[in-house]
Structures are given as C-alpha cells and as structure tokens.
Amino acid sequence: MTPKIESLEAYVAQLSPERKPVIEHLRKIILKNLPNGFEETLSYGMIGYVVPHKLYPNGYHCDPKLPLPFINLASQKNYIAIYHMGIYSNEKLLNWFKKEYEKLGLKKLNRGKSCIRFKKTNEIPYELIGKLCEKMTPSDWIDCYERAIKPKKNKVLEFL
Predict the structure, then answer these.
(1) What domains sit in the chain, N to C, each tagged with a CATH number?
(2) Fewest CB within 10 A of the end CB: N or C in the chain?
(3) pTM of the prediction?
C-alpha cells in the first residue's frame, strides 16, 4: 500500500532523484505563469492548482468541500503528467496547444482528455507549459466550468 502524502513538501520529498528536479522546475514554471487567484495545494495525492473557495465558494461539484481543481502535476510510474482542465473543456485552447506543440518538432503528443504525459523528461516543453498556464484566469476557468456542469434542457420539454 502506498503511504498517504500529507503535504506538498512530503510529495516532493518522496520523488526519485531523477524526477525531483523536473517536478520542482515544472512547479516553478506553473507558479510563475498562472494568473493571480489560483492556489497551489495538495490535490488528489498530487500537486494541484485550484480556484480556492474564497474565489469560488461553490467548490467542486462532486465534493463542494474541495476547491475547484484546474491543474494537477504528478510523477506517475512511467511518466510525468500534467492534468489541465482547460484543455479538457476548451477545444480552442486544446487546438492551440496541439499546434504549438507540433511546431516544436517533438514526438507525437501523448495525451488523454485532460492529461499530457511526458515519458522522457528531456522532451518536456517547459516554455510551452508556461504559456499554457497563462491562457486562463480563475474567472475564465469558473465560467468554462459552470457552462460544462450546467444541466442540459430536457429535450421533451423543448417541444411543449
């Protein structure tokens, strides 16, 4: 069983010597480039960047006690992952990121819906990650998030 991580410092401390400087550098890039209002915290056992309750009292709809997640940074078994909810929920932002990544001439982008995976640490586009972090303010993210979770109209009622 994996021990529960209790703090950001404990998360970083448990990293391998190869991964620690990479994660620390990514943290610096993210913190330098995120617009004001986001907060760094331990989130889902990873390093998280969230919209705090003081800016969005509703919190995360799945568990309102939690702040609204935006970015998570993790050292997984076979890769480093950046989970960015903006590229998951905003197609324009995703397309921008894919286009900019392609311009760098790196290998094919390895990603899931919100996850960007880097198996080789020397292929992490730090500058592009920084630019991605600049693209959404907390209020931009809140607006996008609320549009996504807003209940859809019942199709049957549309005919009445």
Answers:
(1) 22-141 (3.90.1150.200)
(2) N
(3) 0.89
Tens of each residue's pLDDT in the chain, 160 residues: 456 788 999 999 999 999 999 999 999 999 999 999 999 999 989 999 999 999 999 999 989 999 999 999 999 999 999 999 999 999 999 999 999 999 999 888 999 888 999 999 999 999 999 999 999 999 999 999 999 887 655 544 444 4
Q: Which of 146, 117, 154 is nearest to 57 (CA)?
A: 146
Distance CA 55, CA 53 (A): 5
How many angstroms separate the Cα of 78 from the Cα of each of 19, 58, 118? 11, 35, 9
Residues near 25 by beta carbon (within 8 Å), at least 6 away in sequence: 126
